[in-house]
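Hi L.,

As promised, MFS transporter:
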Amino acid sequence: MHASKPSVSPLLWVPTGYFMMALGYVMLTTVTAIMFKNLGMDNGKAAQYSSLLILAYTVKPLFAPFVEMYRTKKFFVLCAQVLIGLGFIGIALVMALPNYMAILMALFWALSFVGATLDIASDGVYVTSLDSRAQSLYCGIQSLSWNVGPIVAAGGMVYLSGWLHVNVFHHDAAVFGPDWIESWRIIFFLVAGLTLVLALWHARFMPDGARAENTPSSVKAAGHILMDSFVTLFQKPGIWRMIAFAFLFRLSIGFLEKIGPFFMVDPVAKGGLGLNNEMLGLIYGTYGLAAVLLGSLLGGLYVAKRGLRETLFVLCCAVNIPNVTFLIMAVYLPTSLSLITAGVMIEKFFFGFGAVGFMIYLMQQLAPGKYTTTHYAFGTGIMGLCGMVTGAISGHLQEWMGYITYFIFVMVATIPSFIATWFAPFYIDEAAGEDPKATQAVPA
């Protein structure tokens, strides 16, 4: 693959490109859960509907080769961003209609595939427009910019929805139902406007992106590449244990991800903490995300110093054991915002600290070989599948069990993560490169 020489500074398009990727993803897969909850859905349906939108991001390796075939990567980026902007406008308009939910879900479903295509094309522009040195140089900016997306979406937009609901439309924040439609329509109009402005910006400053050397020239060729990537993946030694690790490492997090915010906003009478959207956005989208970023930084330094093989089980403990903070809060129902914030930050910090081990394992053990990018995407897709499945059933389980029993169940769900991590294979040496057995298992 040959990187094209960028005609403009990457600082003009890398930060905005990755911010836009994250903004769309978080709005579709995380913020929608809060919106559904506000609109009066029970926890089961709210978690299920938002989790199903992860499917497109899970299966995106299946259609990635086809995106390479036509026009330029920039073309797909711009088309996707315009469609997302128009789609969010459509969602805001549809919410004013009676019996809007079926149309709303169809739009969300379509936009999730557009968002997955945006991810593929944006990553393609980055990889093919910058050489290896520049990729390394801007990697930190890329990661930081992506993480600004959740701050704006899960923090700012959720906060603003609550502020508008109370201060502009003068509704009771504790009452969930149709009154929330007005504030959420404004949120989607705002996100749509921001998305379209970024599309215009990228039309001016984003490079086209070079074509990869193995770019398929036809649908048949793309299908052959896709099939060969799967064949070589399953020829790798220990692949089923790797897949088990990819699916189970964050199992308990999948059960906690949707229910944690629901627990925050549900009234005390239902076993929740009774917070409003403003406090939820502030705690999760600001303090919680800051804790994730700090934990990720320190986790990366820890792995770099000690090596992944020596630290992976410790990282698994960091991801899973601090989930007990939600069980403690469910038992004692603290009213102090400082204590609630501390509980969320502890869980998020250790999640960030441990989650780096998952990504590094995929890069070093699952991905190496003929189709490194595709195999890495397959691993993250398995992780997404876990999040989709656990998220889809988490709300129904919580309603059946109640919060205290459910959070006990979340702690029990950490056990498969420990088992999968303990038996995760290491066939490729971290320092010396690929193990001979691994390279033989992946034909060139």
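The chain has two domains: 1-222, 236-426.

Thanks again for sending the construct details.

K.
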